[in-house]
Amino acid sequence: MQRPEFVALKARLALTVEGARAGLLPLGILPALARAGLHEIEGDATASGFAAALAGLLAGARGRVLWCTPRVALREAGTLYGTGLAACGLDPARLIITRPRQTRDALWTMEEALRGGVFAAVIGEIETLPPIAARRLQLAADAHATAALLLLPPRAHGVGVGMTRWRATSAPGGAWHIELARCRSGASGTWLVEWNHATHCFDLVAVSGERPGAPTLSGMDRAPCGVDCRGSEAPVRHRA
Amino acid sequence: MALIAEEAKRQFVIAPDALAAASGIVPGQTLADARALAGDLAVAAFDPTATRRALDGIAQWCVRYTPATAPASDDGVFLDLTGGAPLFGGEAALLADLIARLARQGFTAQAAVAGTPGAAWALAHFASGTVAAPATERMALAGLPVEALRLTPETVATLCRLGLDTVGALYDLSRAALARRFGDGLCRRLDQALGRVFEPISPLREIPLWRERRDFAEPLLQPEDVAATLHRLIESLCARLASEELGVRGLECLGFRTDGSTARAHIGTSRPTRDPAHLARLFAEKLSLLDPGEGMDGMVLSPTGLENLAPEQTVLTRDGAQPGDLAALLDRLANRLGTANVFALAPVESHRPEHAQRRVAPNTAARNLRWPDGMRRPLRLFANPEAIEAEALSPKEAPLHFTWRRVRHCVHHAEGPERIAAEWWRGAASATRETRDYYRVENEDGERFWLYRADETSRWYLHGLFA
Q1: Which residues contact B265 (CB under 8 A, 6 or more apart)?
Q2: CB within 8 Å: B333 and A50
Q3: Can you give the residue range of the structural domain that contains A133?
Q4: A70 versus A5: which is more confidently predicted?
Q5: Would you give the end-to-end CA distance of chain B in angstroms?
Q6: A174 touches chain B (CB under 8 A)
Q7: How far is CA B258 from CA A173, B215, B301, in A?
Q8: Is A232 inside any structural domain?
């Protein structure tokens, strides 16, 4: 009889292979992310960290990332800090930053960068996104197999055209509270995770009663987004 | 008044003004000696970069006389007047006009006209105002001191020791003897001054050789026509560039409107190119600057930088419009957003968080940069730390509450202080002189902030946000 860990590992491996074939980026305990398409991420500074981590994973060792921070975002949320980006898994050497003056220029930059086909991910901090602009970004991202990550301020209205919509907020103890609020395939879920800088993956934060650090089975056999996503809907208890 | 510079802990006079020179102050004197001659001598530090900038500015301005102007040897500007002087009433009139106009701008200029750059330099420095007739350089220079040949101070000193203190004294010596005693430098300078070897001047602007110009009998009225003409100009320029194996680093397009105004658009590229599609695409963002208005009756396209570009190199640069070309994309972004707004980050060794990184050009492929790790630093940093209201039990403790952007936060957890001392060597800006005690604090929702207390003022600031 096979040990349960082994079964889980095999399942995870199968998902990784299957995911790569389907243009999906496996995220471990989180549902896999489509490499091409528009993803919305809403939240505070944690959303920046989550976007940086996703972009780092999308870029891998050779890809490049473009981060578009309009002037107003720099004043509101601060400039990107290399040491902090590296700590979130995005090597600053892989990153090109643009600083457009207006939203119009920011949207143009994102679309141009998506169409360029030279980036693994294009991150944009856009305060208000007209639906037509969002649609254009989604089309450009789709056509050129690039991930567009839209960083929206907390409680912003979603544009509703993206593949997924995430909500990333801080949780006590350095953890991130990640919610998949919408996914084209209907999946959703809530996770309390920690970015593991050493292994470059998300670790599930153990809630009280569980051994810290040990990923649960339910976390490992989760199907990629678009297949079947059984995220825990129950509120996660923060660890003490 | 004199300009001074410091060398080996001693201050030297670089340039005295007319009044100081009248008291006997000469360049090269120590400041102490100069003060002995004129006790009330006012001094200012010599700034080479500012001087260079001013010279560049003058060279730009001189374009009114000829397109070929170049700053020369740190203290002058060369103008290539070939064929252009009659427009200004002859060389003498042009020279007088140039000196008078510069005087009105506050510059005392020495200037001369001669058939070679070397002779013109010599006359401008030692016989200002001279216009040497063609092929009379030999005669005009004969009486000038040997410094007029742009020689090294050592060579000048040796020549003077040998009693050869005028240019004319060198004419009768055998070249072989001169070359043996002084090396090639002296003979080359002499040949350049006398026109025996050609000395190119490197103009700031490309001389009109590479200009593409179109004049229209019927003024253009539609922006589409302007765009189409621009494309034709680019194509014809690129075809010529290809035959010479050259590429441009930038293009300037001037449009002459019938009302006498000039429209101007400029693009730059991060590396030399002669790809018409790429260049046209860069101009696409700037077409609004070339509005024909009431009508445009002439257009000129000229390169603002030419570099060698071998045919095999264009294989890399040709596909401006095709995906996968990072440099072409970065050019387009930089042209619309401005070069300073497209950048990458590089680490800098500094204790000061705000100095620990700098912006670098995005394609400076200096990769494998080492970022300090393990340090608990925020993801986002405020360029200007934001003042906050904070309450702490004692000045040496983390705050219990703080108010940032009118929201009150309760501190649930805090780490610190991490003391970051002043970088006193960074100069006088007060923000860099203070010592700061940094704290990582977490509020009731788990949001993490980077706060510091300025040691001197005891004021609290929020400097960054953690992910």
Answers
A1: B252, B253, B283, B286, B287, B289, B290
A2: no
A3: 4-220
A4: A70
A5: 58
A6: yes
A7: 70, 12, 18
A8: no
Strands A164-171 and A37-43: parallel
- A·B CB contacts under 8 A: 165
Provide CB contacts within 8 A for B227, sequence distance 6+.
Answer: B283, B284, B287, B290
pLDDT over threshold 50, residue B216: yes
Q: Rounded to whole angstroms, how far apart are CA atoms B324 and B278?
A: 14
In chain B, where are the structural domains located?
A: 2-46, 49-194, 208-337, 380-465
- Cα distance between residue B384 and residue B464, in whole Å: 10
Is B379–A52 a contact, with Cβ atoms under 8 angstroms apart? yes
Mean pLDDT of chain A: 80
The more confidently predicted of residues A143 and A231 is A143
CATH number of the domain enclosing A15: 3.40.50.300
Residue A166 in domain: yes
The fold for domain B208-337 equals Dna Ligase; domain 1 (3.30.1490)
Q: What predicted TM-score, i.e. pTM, was given to this entire model?
A: 0.60
**pLDDT tens, position by position, B303-340:** 888 888 877 555 443 333 344 588 889 989 999 998 89
B381: contact with A, CB 8 A cutoff: yes
Residue A239 in domain: no
Instruction: Provide the pLDDT confidence category of residue A217 given band limits of 50, 70 and 90.
Output: very low
Contacts of A66 (CB under 8 A, 6+ apart): A95, A96, A97, A98, A109, A110, A113, A119, A121, A122, A123
CB of B63 within 8 Å of a chain A CB? The answer is no
Helices A131-143 and A103-116, axial angle in degrees (round to 10): 20
Rounded Cα distance, B384 and B241, in Å: 48
Please give the single-letter amino acid code of residue B145.
P
CB contact set of B381 (below 8 Å; sequence gap of 6+): A78, A79, A81, A84, B353, B354, B450, B463, B464
Phi, psi dihedrals of residue A107, rounded to the nearest 5°: -65, -40
Question: Is the CB of residue A77 less than 8 Å from the CB of residue A45?
Answer: yes
Instruction: List, in sequence order, every residue forming a beta bridge with A80; answer none if it has no partner.
Output: B380
Residue A227 lies in a domain: no
**Residue A46 touches partner B, C-beta closer than 8 Å:** yes
ipTM attached to this prediction: 0.80
A134-148, B34-48, B87-101, B202-216: which has the highest mean pLDDT? A134-148
Instruction: Give phi and psi for B444, each to the nearest 5.
Output: -65, -25
Position B321 scores a pLDDT of 39
Angle between helices B223-244 and B276-284 (to 10 degrees): 150
* pLDDT single digits (tens) B257-307: 888 777 889 998 888 888 999 999 899 888 889 999 888 888 889 888 888
- Specify the number of domains making up chain A: 1
pLDDT computed for residue A239 by the predictor: 42
How many C-alpha atoms does B180 have within 13 Å on its Cβ side?
5
pLDDT recorded at residue A226 = 36
The pLDDT > 90 percentage for chain A reads: 42
Query: Do the chains contact at B330 and A96, CB–CB below 8 Å?
Result: yes
List the single best residue of B342, B345, B359, B451 to mutate versus A (max A Cβ within 10 A): B345
**Residue B457 or residue A216, greater confidence:** B457
CA-nearest residue of chain B to A99? B341
- A98 interaction partners in chain B (CB closer than 8 Å): 333, 337, 341-342
